[in-house]
């Protein structure tokens, strides 16, 4: 059974938009991120397209509203993909460690000298006992 054209273009539009969103999340990130000012402009353009889509919907221009909404969603998907780029100050994303030396302990925690801690604690507690008894 063939679909009526009013439903067919909506299904195609849904598939294209879902594809764009999935592609923006799963595609390889660009080498460099988009600068913040340009990214904000792109998101503002997408929000403007959404506002135009709302106006087109309110004035009963469904086809135009669908096209404008799709453009806004595509612009947001593009902004999401462009924001995933890594800059020179970002850590490498290839699984290598950032630190040139491994941590000193297998757990990643530094070694703690318990013997030195106990010696310092005994000195501290003895000093506290002497000061507490001096006022009597």
Return the string of H and E elements: HHHH
Q: Which spans of ≥5 residues are poorly predicted at pLDDT below 50?
A: none
Distance between the termini: 101 Å
Helix % is: 55-70%
Strand proportion, as a percent range, falls in: under 5%
Overall mean pLDDT score? 81
Outline: elongated
Note the total helix count.
4
Number of separate strands: 0
Main beta sheet, described? none
Rg measurement, Å = 31 Å
Structural class: mainly alpha
What does this structure look like?
By secondary structure, the protein is mainly alpha-helical. It has a domain at 5-83. It is 65% helix and 0% strand. The chain has helices at residues 5-26, 36-58, 62-83, 114-134. Helix 1 packs parallel to helix 3 (62-83) and helix 2 (36-58) runs antiparallel to helix 3. It is elongated, with a radius of gyration of 31 Å. The mean pLDDT is 81.
Defining key terms:
single chain; mainly alpha
């Amino acid at each position: 059974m063939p679909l009526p054209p009013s439903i067919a273009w909506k299904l195609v539009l849904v598939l294209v938009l879902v594809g764009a969103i999935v592609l923006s999340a799963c595609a390889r990130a660009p080498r460099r991120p988009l600068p913040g000012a340009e990214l904000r402009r792109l998101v503002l353009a997408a929000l403007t397209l959404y506002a135009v889509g709302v106006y087109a919907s309110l004035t009963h221009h469904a086809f135009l509203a669908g096209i404008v909404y799709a453009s806004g969603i595509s612009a947001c998907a593009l902004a999401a993909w462009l924001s995933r780029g890594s800059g020179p100050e970002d850590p490498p994303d290839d699984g290598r460690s950032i630190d040139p030396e491994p941590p000193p302990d297998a757990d990643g925690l530094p070694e703690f000298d318990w013997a030195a801690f106990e010696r310092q604690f005994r000195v501290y507690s003895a000093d506290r006992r002497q000061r507490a008894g001096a006022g009597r």
